[in-house]
Design brief:
Elements (H helix, E strand, L loop, with lengths): L4 E9 L10 E10 L4 E5 L6 H7 L8 E6 L2 E2 L6 H7 E4 L12 H11 L4 H14 L15 H13 L5 E5 L7 H18 L2 E5 L11 E6 L2 E6 L1 H5 L2 H6 L6 H10 L12 H17 L1
Parallel strand pairs: 3-8, 3-9, 6-7, 7-8
Antiparallel strand pairs: 1-2, 1-4, 4-5, 9-10
Helix pairs in contact: 3-4, 3-5, 4-5, 5-6
Membrane topology: Peripheral membrane protein
Organism: Brotocaccenecus cirricatena
Family: Belongs to the ABC transporter superfamily.
Length: 286
């Protein structure tokens, strides 16, 4: 099967003023994102994760190497519209993505610009709002919604384009915990029920627990790449990259320093609690 997104020796440097040193944001990055997968990209500020995200639907174009969306080269201008239809972006600040005074009009904005017939737009808007659980807010003013609700409307606007992939570029960074949960639940459901490929850029380690794959960026290169349990159990490597392991893993690790033998792969709260209970229960039975 052809990958959803593929980068081949991708390099990128931002323009600098004359006399300043040119810095490389991405350096020879080669990745393949499978269709239907849920991938989380982690990294500290300046690691290159958001720059990578912006290459996935040609917001940025490579300085070197190439990016392909279902085999389409993002550098080919004639393919730009189709690439952006297939890969939708949701950015950090939901207020910057709201373009209309009514929720349904905001969701309809992108399909209208694509020239979609009116009756089809109505169907897409209704379907997209239902998909993100915002049907009851169809006629609401977006500026009166919570942060999490605004991001769900932004996601609905992307869904209305009927993409095959959604890239969330720090889309939960400005939200409170309940808002982050709303957005995560929404994109996980879209991935699970509709098979939409999701690439989630974040600095919240806990948001990677249920991903199929975790990619860790550092200084413009891929530093780690694997399943969440495998990545998060490598605590020292994460710390060397300026990242903290999830609280659950850190708790297990500290308990292991006190002669317990707990698996660092128990990354969710339930798994962590179960592992500790079983270890204590086993100890009491001896």
């Amino acid at each position: 099967m052809q990958p959803m997104i593929q980068t081949d020796a991708l390099s990128f440097s931002y323009p600098v003023e004359e006399g300043q040193r040119r810095t490389t944001a991405l350096d020879n990055v080669t990745l393949s994102i499978e269709k239907g997968s849920f991938v989380v990209v982690l990294g500290h500020n300046g690691s290159g994760k958001s720059t990578l995200a912006k290459h996935m639907n040609a917001v940025l174009l490579p300085s070197g190497g190439a990016v392909y969306v279902e085999g389409m080269d993002t550098k080919k201008e004639e393919l730009l519209l189709e690439i952006r239809r297939r890969v939708g972006m949701v950015f950090q600040n939901p207020d910057n993505q709201i373009v209309a005074n009514v929720v349904e009009e905001d969701v309809a904005f992108a399909p209208e610009n694509l020239g979609v017939p009116t009756a089809e737009i109505r169907r897409r808007v209704d379907d997209a709002l239902a998909a993100v659980g915002m049907t009851e807010f169809t006629r609401h003013a977006p500026h009166l919604l919570s942060g999490g609700q605004k991001q769900r409307v932004a996601i609905a606007g992307v869904i209305a384009m009927e993409p095959e992939c959604i890239v969330l570029d720090e889309a939960t960074a400005m939200l409170d915990p309940s808002g982050r949960r709303e957005v995560l639940d929404t994109v996980h459901r879209l991935n699970r029920e509709r098979g939409i490929t999701v690439v989630h850029i974040t600095h919240h380690m806990s948001e990677a627990e249920d991903a199929d794959r975790v990619i860790v960026m550092n200084d413009g290169v891929v530093a780690m790449d694997g399943a969440p349990r495998e990545i998060f159990s490598r605590v020292e490597e994460l710390q060397a990259l300026g990242l903290a392991a999830p609280d659950t893993v850190e708790l297990l690790r500290r308990l292991n320093r006190h002669s317990m033998n707990l698996p660092l792969t128990a990354i969710t709260v339930d798994e962590c609690a179960r592992a500790i209970f079983q270890a204590l229960h086993g100890a009491e039975g001896k």
